[in-house]
Amino acid sequence: MHLSIQSELQLFAEELYEHLTPSFLENLARELGFVQRKRKLSGHATINFTKEETGIK
Description:
Layout: H1 3-19, H2 22-31, H3 43-54
Helix pairs in contact: 1-3
Protein name: Transposase
Organism: Sporolactobacillus putidus
């Protein structure tokens, strides 16, 4: 991935992680039809996992 794109994505992920609570993400996913049942992995955990995989701190 191009470095500037990766940097922009990192900044975006950091902002999401700081401002969106796990319950907000879960409710939003349900409202949008993305989640129809309870899952073991929450939306917030998914963002956290993505941060760890991309090296975002």
